[in-house]
Amino acid sequence: MTPSERDLFFLPLGGTGEIGMNMNLYGHDGQWLMVDCGVTFPRPGRVVADGSVHQAGEPDIQMADPDFIVRHRDQLAGLIITHAHEDHIGAVPYLWSKLRCPVYCTRFTAEVLKKKLVEQGLLHRVKIIVPETGERLQIGTFNVQWLALTHSVPDPNALMIRTPAGNIFHTGDWKLDPEPMVGHGYRQDTFTQLATEGVRAMVCDSTNATVNGHSASEGELYEGLRHYIETAPGRVIVTCFGSNIARLLTLSHVADDTGRYMGLYGRSMVTMFQCAKRAGVWPYSAGTVDTGHLGYLPRHEVLAVATGSQGEPRTALRRLAAGTHPDFDLEPGDRVIFSARAIPGNEDSIAGLIRQLESRGVEVITAEMAIKPIHASGHPAQQELETLYRWVQPQIAIPVHGEAVHMQAHAELAKACGVPRILTGRNGDLFMLSNNPGIQRQKVQTGRLGWDKGKLVRVD
């Protein structure tokens, strides 16, 4: 299946009809462009001894099967990574040897990718091209421009993909945050100018399409986090996504203002922090302390930020809950703050973790029970979706990055915003966007691969 010069195709191999393992292809004039190459969590299954939930026998690391584009590798012009979240970047080190194409990503994302490639011995084999936000590059037959939006990770970018057969606006993950704390912001005129130029299709994040209103800003969280940190009599452990550098910066400010010392626990969190410093998005005036010191400090001076907000096994918070962390033991009077919400499918694992913590006499504060905001989603709620549709004015809306309920709500919203055509589908559907738009259902077979004991295996 090779696109002609008159064709403009969108072909999702992962991330459409589900949340995670994003892998998208755009086709035009004999070539394909891949956007994102991410991993996902194992599907929910049994509860194991430490309280986490896992499907028996499934690999911990899973990703979309790229078989279609591997068979057409000579037509693959390049791979663009929109941002540094695992569900968009995590599969690159496992799949690049099958793809063997240049990788394009901005500065923070490039630092994260380099760390991953080092672990697989690929750093000096992969050509990484780092465009500036706003820059336009010709990638094969596709003219691509990186556009600044905001998300819960530094330097996320939407894409304007221009071809003679039409222009596609690919949002990636995004929100409209007026105070993102770190990294770039966004400008309205960036997107209203796209409308003036003409956008054939807008391929857009659906994660929070069922949520009314506007997502909270990262800049709104200081008061809530400070309240729950300064009122704790003992240690405070905050768990959040390690890639949320803005949240780490807010917590650093809270630590300074409440007389606590902040340390980072969890390999992925420390890695993200190091990448932020190398990319220049972490202010040098903000800092952390060596975690080895925290166990010797008075409990009321400790602020630990730990991985494990989704109840994952072998994370720092899971070890603290089990009493197996080498630095200190949690005690009654300590407080754990979940500055994150559950990714769908992780609810049981998180509930098991909370039970473990409470059995040790630890107080647990979740985002749902907090009287002041302590978490902000990185995805657009309905008001933000309406705003972006009003700015961009695409001829076609294509909801992605969500389960069926999210994409259906997104489709209804796009229709209410006056978008002339809405196309909804799932992985393996071929979206034909030039001339008479439509979908060929299940044109390409899709599935999952897993990384198990140093090799790729098929996941049924």
From TrEMBL:
> What InterPro entries does the annotation carry?
Metallo-B-lactamas, RibonucZ/Hydroxyglut_hydro, RMMBL, RNase_J_2, RNase_J_b_CASP
- A single GO molecular function term of this UniProt record: exonuclease activity
- What would be one Pfam family of this protein? RNase_J_b_CASP
Please state every residue range assigned to the domain named Metallo-beta-lactamase: 20-214
Q: Which Gene3D superfamilies match?
A: Metallo-hydrolase/oxidoreductase, Ribonuclease Z/Hydroxyacylglutathione hydrolase-like
Going by the UniProt record, its keywords in alphabetical order are: Exonuclease, Hydrolase, Metal-binding, Nuclease, RNA-binding, Zinc
Q: Keyword Zinc, does the record have it?
A: yes
Query: Record's PANTHER family?
Result: RIBONUCLEASE J
Protein name stated in the entry: MBL fold metallo-hydrolase
Taxonomic classification: Bacteria, Pseudomonadati, Pseudomonadota, Gammaproteobacteria, Oceanospirillales
